[in-house]
Amino acid sequence: MSITTRAAVLRAMGASPPYADSRPLTIETVTLDPPGRDEVRVAIKAAGLCHSDLSVINRDRPRPMPMALGHEAAGVVEALGEGVTDLAVGDHVVMVFMPSCGDCGPCASGRPALCEPGAAANGQGELLGGGRRLSADGERLNHHLGCSAFAERAVVSRRSLVKVPDDLPFETAALFGCAVLTGVGAVMNTAPVRAGQGVVVVGLGGVGLASVLGALAAGASPVVAVDLSEDKLALARSLGATATVNAADADAVEQVRALTGGGAEVAFEMAGSVRALEAAWRMTRRGGTTVTAGLPPPDAALAVNVVSLVAEERTLKGSYIGTSVPDRDIPRYIGLYRDGRLPVDRLMSGTIGLADINAGFDRLDRGQVVRLVVTM
Prior knowledge:
By secondary structure, this protein is an alpha/beta fold. Helix content is 30%, strand content 26%. The protein folds into two domains: 3-163 and 343-375, Quinone Oxidoreductase, Chain A, domain 1; 179-321, NAD(P)-binding Rossmann-like Domain (Rossmann fold), CATH 3.40.50. It has helices at residues 19-22, 51-57, 105-108, 116-124, 170-190, 206-217, 230-239, 252-259, 274-282, 306-311, 326-338, 357-365, and strands at 3-10, 25-32, 39-48, 67-68, 72-80, 92-95, 134-136, 139-143, 153-157, 161-163, 199-202, 223-227, 243-246, 264-269, 284-292, 315-318, 348-352, 371-375. Strands 3, 5, 6, 9, 10, 17 and 18 form a seven-stranded mixed sheet that branches. The chain has a six-stranded parallel sheet with strand order 13-12-11-14-15-16, with helices on both faces. The protein has a five-stranded mixed β-barrel with strand order 1-2-7-8-4. Helix 9 (274-282) links the parallel strand 14 and strand 15.
């Protein structure tokens, strides 16, 4: 049977900050349908505020409206739909914002992050199995990336969940579903970085700092972190970055090239900015690889010098969800966290309640936090 729950709903994109005043997200009591076949109802315990949510609010990443936002979360299985036999009520799970059908061409070739039905469902605001399970006053609400996790409860596809150990704190577990999966995955899967390689990370949000941690865990040296925020640069140093450079410095590219002996072997752009990607490209040495996981507005374009691409054997790679296989990678990254090699809990800037979510997005928009986590 259907139940009611509270959720943060976005009814129109493009609100102007400060969001604490314009209040683009309204906390509403919504109706949640029971899980259908191959679906699960989850009691959300923690959900991280990410730039992928902010980019819907500010219209950088247009999505169908109205939409219940949130995609980086952890919780407890509360009810199982028909056909779900590998989870049990009470299991702890992390949400993954790209469900994979397991049957399309990319899934069959081991690249579930590129699942074609999953991408189509996300773009339409639906679950992988089709349709929507949320409504308010008889109006259907769209799902954000198959999760809609800024809520007390959510119904999601079984393909959007990974079981995790019960003793992993929910606030930490949530980060593995997006920031860690994307940032560490870009390092270990997309690049992949080898021990001893010089690395630079441009953009130190949750994903960028996770990339710094991933590069250190992979044995990269040196690891240079670049950002506009001195606070984030200080955090990167405390996490183990070899050196930091303020992106506002007129000679930032030259500084990085000097620190890496002529340019990084692998450069990561995690700011979602064409200007940052251009800088990362210039920070990469001959024969090197530039990886981007940033998502600028859809009409953003990059001009690349083709002669340099060819004559210097340069590589430019996109990375979506860290080229990850979530069922394989999340347990692996949790293992590194338990071993002390991936201290992702240090990326959490604090916790807030659901009622404070608009003010939380102000802090994210201003670059004042790495990861704020909503706790239910």
